[in-house]
Recover the amino acids of this structure.
């Protein structure tokens, strides 16, 4: 059973470009979570999604950031017009419908030049 | 201030020594998770605790939950270099179903 998969593992963007981060949950998991780890701030919750629904986006910046988890395909975290402050490691986690244990992917390390 | 405080922030031990990492919450806990992270990698799930007084073990790692104190401890017996990494506690708090709040992490170094 493959774990949570994220791609790309490393992403370099110039200021003003768009970044698209993908997350494929573990087989049988219908809940996806995105977290951001900034160098001096620790791991922070961004958004919680189920298939085709955003359940909790309280940790998501109001502008430039969006997330989706379509019926088919991976979950996507999209950052428009990236700025240097967006440089961080972005982790995706997934969980089964009933249990709350979240299993994390390897992360995508975004660098904004 | 942090909702979830971990102590110590870093720990250096000699191989074979026992150690304890603590995680204290300022809010009611509805579930406490321990993860391990190697530098530059993802989080590896270790254990989940949900009930007061609950204790779980995995190999040489034991975690306990003290519901009254809103605190959890992670104890490693006879540490090995393979135990080195960053230990993170995460918790479900309040009514935020699915949203994990994390402590700032404890960096563990084990010298052979």
């Amino acid at each position: 059973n493959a774990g949570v998969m994220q791609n790309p593992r490393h992403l370099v963007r110039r200021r003003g470009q768009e970044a698209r981060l993908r997350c494929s949950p573990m087989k049988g998991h219908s809940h996806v979570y995105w977290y951001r780890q900034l160098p001096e701030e620790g791991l922070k919750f961004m958004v919680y999604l189920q298939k085709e629904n955003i359940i909790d986006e309280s940790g998501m910046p109001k502008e430039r950031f969006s997330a989706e988890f379509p019926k088919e395909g991976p979950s996507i975290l999209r950052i428009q017009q990236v700025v240097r402050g967006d440089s961080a490691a972005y982790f995706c986690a997934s969980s089964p419908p009933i249990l709350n244990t979240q299993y994390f992917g390897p992360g995508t390390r975004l660098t904004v030049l | 201030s942090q909702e979830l405080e971990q102590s110590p922030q870093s720990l250096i031990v000699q191989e074979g020594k026992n150690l304890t990492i603590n995680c204290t919450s300022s809010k009611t806990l509805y579930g406490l998770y321990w993860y391990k992270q190697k530098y530059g990698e993802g989080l590896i799930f270790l254990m989940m605790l949900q009930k007061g007084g609950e204790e779980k073990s995995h190999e040489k790692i034991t975690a306990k939950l003290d519901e009254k104190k809103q605190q959890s401890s992670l104890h490693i017996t006879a540490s090995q270099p393979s135990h080195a990494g960053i230990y993170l506690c995460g918790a479900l708090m309040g009514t935020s179903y699915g949203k994990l709040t994390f402590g700032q992490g404890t960096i563990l170094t084990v010298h052979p």
Notes: The CA atoms of residues 15 and 80 of chain B lie 5 Å apart. The mean pLDDT of chain B is 91.
